[in-house]
């Protein structure tokens, strides 16, 4: 080791005393330095290691310590290289920040990517505050307090904020369980619950964000037209109803203009949106602080906002100047403007006035009594109104008489009918926006710490602000003013602005800019969310929206977002749009909670969140609250939203989104499957529950194509998508060498299964002999109670002409194995003539020849086939065979009764087979069969010819490694050489053999079996020659293997002249019962 350490550095050469003129030693040292000891294949140059040349030299010694692993370093990199790649990895999302940098291609090339450096405050807390605080706080919270009262308003706020807090806890657990790239909530749900749920909820979240932009724009336009520049209104109404519709039209026109301008800003550059975000957030904070300052100031100096009351009714204050019926002008009492509104022109004594106006007094009360006024007692409980109902103050004296309808516009009235559930739907959007932190995970210095802390702190802050605002509004503002949505009673001032300090304009301007900023943020985020969904390619028709400008800006997604937002603008009512986006956000939050609960309960190994303060019970509570809030706020919107999500789910499922994201639903399926398998393992299925669970043995050609795809067609027709289907095949060879070939074969079979609509599993095994591979499949396929009970395999066509006897030997061996395993067996003969799934039999018969009873398979199979549309219109006929000593009439009656009890409709026929002498044809067929077998047994090759033939076989197998189920299998060494006729023999030898065979058959049992086969075939062909399908009992193979070839001949004779035959062997148990 010491010598080697000296050798590894040129600087240490001086420490050695080299013998002079020792040429060989110098040469050895030179070679040592030029070609270092080892295999010479250093892995420092592998693509996994990006070290410099100096680093390579430094790591030489280290790599020699890894000589045992050097051949695998390209697929199993060193720990040091892995860690260096992990450190250099960045999870910056394809979001706004990248698009800013990529707007100039040249600039982006010059820029070096910045490492994430945002902390909890700037990266999560403040963005969440900006997204949560919004239009509802400034435009609707006072109205909600007035309608619902302080107690119910606190309940509404508590419900919504509790729901978002529980969702934030679940979201924190998911967000800290690894990296959350672009897409935020969509990514979390899709990777936790799978592509179907992810796509459905992702689109719902996208629609919610899009409608949120419409809501913010409508809020901004409402502030603009109601409080900032009322003169900008284009449409004007002449009556109260007309003014409402005119206002909606104004909202539509200005909303569309504002949406267009915002879309242009987002399209031109996101950098402007991001730069203005801080300004918008400052507006929100200043506005909220001014509310608190005004509330505190109102304790000593309440602001002056008098309200004019006629009786107990609230008057619209901007319609007149003085709150009195008369005014004194130069010691003369003259009618006021208020009088002129309610009375016809004329002198005061003879004027015709409104009855209510005459009988009730005009009073003026303080609109903002202040924090110490005790008004909180009056505002404690709700006062819900119907549409058009006038705002009245309880406690004021009033003579209740009907006034003239013409004067209705003088009163402040409710524009919509209100209820607790409606107010929940309107308020909930002000609790959304909790995903802002998770969406920025790529920009955070420590996302797994910042996201939980920042989000939960933001929700806590906003919840406290909302709860305290409810109490402050109820304690400071008069009830009729709170119920006045648009501030008509306080000279068209924003109600929350009347409380603020130093001026109402602080709130008006601040809320306007905050709503505009929130709208821009929504218009920026929604297209990127749609782009993330489109790029995942789980919804094909959205694929176009994954493209955009060269710098990645989602142009097409922005266009679609603008069109959908325009639909919200055309609704034109903030109170109508808010419940719509509440549904979509609630559905998104519901599935975030579900994802966390599923992952927690499944205890998947990858579920290791850094955020520890979560529990599945909290997630289920949050999920239940989301569902409850959906139906509380609007049950019909909830049903529509769930219907949309359900249709998207089924569409993605139908399209077959083959995405493996390690989602929780897959884990849930695994747990459910495990539970079901353990339940199935309790005992064998009852006869009533028995159905053929198929193992289909397929034969592949040299190109790995399925040789007889109609076997799969038949399986799909028999199963009709129910039960278990396993498709198996065998590749001959060595597993280590044939692994890639096995995978290719599996893929080919899966493709064919998809074409033939076979729902099941595929299993390909590699074995040295095909016969052994089939035995492995029969023994090991399936799991627990979900194992096959029926084997389907093809007929070995051309076995007579084949020079290789292994084809039919493998077939017979499989028959024996299925019998030994107590499995049923089906052999479709002439399977290429079987119908495809697109064919329809409009008539014809399915004939069952019930020769022996082996469990009732022959009765059950036609019934199952008739469930498929191909065979549905075929009629079923059952034939049974009566011998001389049987009562055929009684047999027919008994069989009809049996079928009636089985609830199977079929014609019954009993065929009598009389004892007859064995025909010459039978002897001839038996003799031909024995002659062929005898010739093959007696013809043996000489030793040299046998070796030469073995070499030919070996060469042929070296070219074709692909094994089939019934041929191309290497024989056992101990077996006799292949039994085949050598065509180079002389003519005399076969002639002598043939002459020796011109005798009667030596085995009389063969004659009897051939006689049975011939007689049965005559009867079957006579009765069923035109049948669509013939089902027949399959005789068992002989116990003595010497008669295997004769057995194949018997089966050939039995099925001669029939187009489609299904040979059936039972598994040794009853599969059909008459009992319910």
UniProtKB/TrEMBL annotation:
> One GO CC term of this entry?
synapse
Write out the entry's keywords from A to Z. Answer: Cell membrane, Chloride, Glycoprotein, Ion transport, Membrane, Phosphoprotein, Potassium, Potassium transport, Symport, Transmembrane, Transmembrane helix, Transport
Residues spanning the membrane: 21-39, 124-143, 155-180, 200-225, 253-270, 276-295, 416-436, 456-482, 494-513, 555-574, 581-602, 614-640
Q: Which InterPro entries match?
A: AA-permease/SLC12A_dom, KCL_cotranspt, SLC12_C, SLC12A_fam
In its keyword annotation, does this UniProt entry include Cell membrane?
yes
Q: Which reaction does it catalyse?
A: K(+)(in) + chloride(in) = K(+)(out) + chloride(out)
**GO MF assignments:** potassium:chloride symporter activity
Q: Which residues form the SLC12A transporter C-terminal domain?
A: 709-827, 840-1076
Give every Amino acid permease/ SLC12A domain span. 124-295, 395-695
Write down the superkingdom of origin: Eukaryota
Q: Where does it reside?
A: Cell membrane
Q: What membrane topology was assigned to this protein in its record?
A: Multi-pass membrane protein
Q: What is its main location?
A: membrane
NCBIfam families (UniProt xref): 2a30
Q: Family per UniProt?
A: Belongs to the SLC12A transporter family. K/Cl co-transporter subfamily.
- Which protein are we looking at? Solute carrier family 12 member 4
Originating species: Lates calcarifer
Supply the gene name.
SLC12A4
């Amino acid at each position: 080791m010491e010598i080697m350490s000296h050798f590894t550095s040129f600087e240490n050469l001086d420490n050695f005393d080299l013998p002079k003129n020792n040429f060989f030693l110098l040469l050895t040292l030179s070679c040592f330095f030029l070609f270092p000891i080892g295999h010479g294949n250093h892995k420092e140059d592998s693509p996994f290691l990006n070290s410099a040349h100096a680093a390579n030299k430094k790591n030489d010694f280290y790599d020699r310590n890894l000589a045992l692993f050097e051949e695998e370093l390209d697929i199993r990199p060193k720990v040091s290289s892995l860690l260096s790649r992990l450190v250099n990895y960045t999870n910056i999302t394809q979001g706004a920040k990248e698009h800013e940098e990529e707007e100039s291609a040249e600039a982006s090339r010059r820029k070096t990517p910045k490492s994430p450096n945002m902390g909890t405050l700037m990266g999560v807390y403040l963005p969440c505050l900006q997204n949560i605080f919004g239009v509802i706080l400034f435009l609707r919270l006072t109205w909600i307090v007035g309608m619902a009262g302080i107690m119910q308003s606190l309940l509404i706020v508590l419900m919504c904020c509790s729901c978002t807090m529980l969702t934030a806890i679940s979201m924190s657990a998911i967000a800290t369980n690894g990296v959350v790239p672009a897409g935020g909530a969509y990514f979390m749900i899709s990777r936790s619950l799978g592509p179907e749920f992810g796509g459905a909820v992702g689109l719902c979240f996208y629609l919610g964000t899009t409608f949120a932009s419409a809501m913010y724009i409508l809020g901004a336009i409402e502030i603009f037209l109601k409080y900032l520049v009322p003169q900008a209104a284009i449409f004007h109404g002449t009556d109260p109803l007309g003014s409402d519709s005119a206002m909606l039209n104004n909202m539509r026109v200005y909303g569309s203009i504002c949406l267009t301008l915002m879309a242009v800003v987002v399209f031109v550059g996101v950098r402007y949106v991001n730069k203005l975000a801080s300004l918008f957030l400052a507006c929100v904070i200043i506005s909220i602080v001014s509310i608190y300052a005004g509330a505190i100031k109102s304790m000593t100096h309440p602001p002056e906002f008098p309200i004019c009351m006629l009786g107990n009714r609230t008057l619209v204050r901007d319609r007149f100047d003085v709150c009195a019926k008369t005014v004194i002008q130069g010691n003369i009492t003259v009618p006021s403007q208020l009088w002129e509104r309610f009375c016809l022109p004329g002198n005061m004594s003879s004027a015709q006035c409104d009855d209510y106006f005459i009988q009730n007094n005009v009073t003026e009360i303080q609109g903002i009594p202040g924090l110490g006024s005790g008004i909180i007692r009056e505002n404690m409980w709700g006062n819900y109104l119907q549409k058009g109902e006038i705002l009245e103050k309880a406690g004021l004296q009033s003579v209740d008489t009907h006034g003239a309808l013409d004067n209705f516009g003088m009163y402040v009235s409710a524009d919509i009918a209100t209820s607790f559930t409606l107010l929940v739907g309107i308020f909930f959007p002000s609790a959304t926006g909790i995903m802002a932190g998770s969406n920025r995970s790529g920009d955070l210095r420590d996302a797994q710490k910042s996201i939980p802390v920042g989000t939960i702190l933001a929700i806590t802050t906003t919840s406290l602000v909302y709860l305290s605002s409810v109490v402050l509004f109820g304690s400071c503002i008069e009830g009729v003013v709170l119920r006045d949505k648009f501030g008509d009673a306080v000279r068209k001032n924003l109600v929350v602005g009347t409380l603020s300090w130093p001026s109402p304009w602080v709130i008006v301007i601040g809320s306007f800019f905050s709503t505009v900023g929130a709208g821009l943020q929504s218009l920026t985020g929604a297209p990127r969310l749609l782009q993330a969904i489109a790029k995942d390619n789980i919804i094909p028709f959205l694929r176009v929206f994954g493209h955009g400008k060269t710098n990645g800006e989602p142009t097409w997604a922005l266009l679609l977002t603008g069109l959908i937002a325009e639909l919200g603008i055309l609704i034109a009512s903030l109170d109508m749009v808010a419940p719509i986006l509440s549904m979509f956000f609630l559905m998104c939050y519901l599935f975030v909670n579900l994802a966390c609960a599923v992952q927690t309960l499944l205890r998947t190994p990858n579920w290791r969140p850094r955020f520890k303060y979560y529990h599945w019970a909290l997630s289920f509570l949050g999920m239940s609250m989301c569902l409850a809030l959906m139906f509380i706020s609007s049950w019909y919107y909830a049903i529509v939203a769930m219907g949309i999500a359900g249709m998207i789910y089924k569409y993605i499922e139908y399209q077959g989104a083959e995405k493996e994201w390690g989602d929780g639903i897959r884990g849930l399926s695994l747990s459910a499957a495990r539970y079901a398998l353990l339940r199935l393992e309790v005992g064998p299925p009852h006869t009533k529950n028995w159905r053929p669970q198929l193992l289909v043995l397929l034969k592949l050609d040299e190109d790995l194509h399925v040789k007889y795809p109609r076997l799969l067609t038949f399986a799909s027709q028999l199963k009709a998508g129910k039960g278990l289907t396993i498709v198996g095949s065998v590749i001959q060879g060595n597993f280590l060498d044939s692994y890639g070939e096995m995978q290719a074969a599996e893929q080919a079979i899966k493709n064919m299964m998809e074409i033939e609509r076979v729902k099941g599993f595929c299993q390909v095994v590699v074995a040295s002999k095909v016969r052994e591979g089939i035995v492995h499949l029969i023994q090991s396929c399936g799991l627990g109670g979900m194992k096959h009970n029926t084997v389907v395999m093809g007929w070995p066509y051309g076995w007579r002409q084949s020079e290789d006897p292994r084809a039919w030997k493998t077939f017979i061996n499989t028959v024996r194995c299925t019998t030994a395993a107590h499995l049923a067996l089906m052999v479709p003969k002439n399977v290429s003539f079987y119908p495809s799934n697109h064919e329809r039999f409009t008539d014809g018969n399915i004939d069952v020849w019930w020769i022996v009873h082996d469990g009732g398979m022959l009765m059950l199979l036609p019934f199952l086939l008739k469930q498929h549309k191909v065979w549905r219109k075929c009629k079923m006929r059952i034939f049974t065979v009566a011998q001389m000593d049987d009562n055929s009439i009684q047999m027919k009656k008994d069989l009809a009764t049996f079928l009636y009890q089985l609830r199977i409709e079929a014609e019954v026929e009993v065929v009598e087979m009389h004892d007859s002498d064995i025909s010459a044809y039978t002897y001839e067929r038996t003799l031909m069969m024995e002659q062929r077998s005898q010739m093959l047994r007696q013809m043996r090759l000489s030793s040299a010819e046998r070796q030469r033939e073995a070499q030919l076989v070996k060469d042929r197998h070296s070219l074709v490694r692909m094994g089939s189920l019934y041929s191309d299998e290497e024989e056992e060494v101990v077996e006799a050489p292949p039994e085949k006729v050598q065509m180079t023999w002389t003519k005399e030898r076969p002639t002598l053999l043939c002459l020796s065979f011109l005798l009667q058959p030596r085995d009389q049992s063969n004659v009897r079996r051939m006689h049975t086969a011939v007689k049965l075939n005559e009867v079957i062909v006579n009765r069923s020659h035109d049948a669509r399908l013939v089902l027949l009992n399959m005789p068992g193979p002989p116990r003595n293997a010497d008669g295997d070839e004769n057995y194949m001949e018997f089966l050939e004779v039995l099925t001669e002249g029939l187009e489609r035959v299904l040979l059936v062997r039972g598994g040794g148990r009853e599969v059909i019962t008459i009992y319910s």
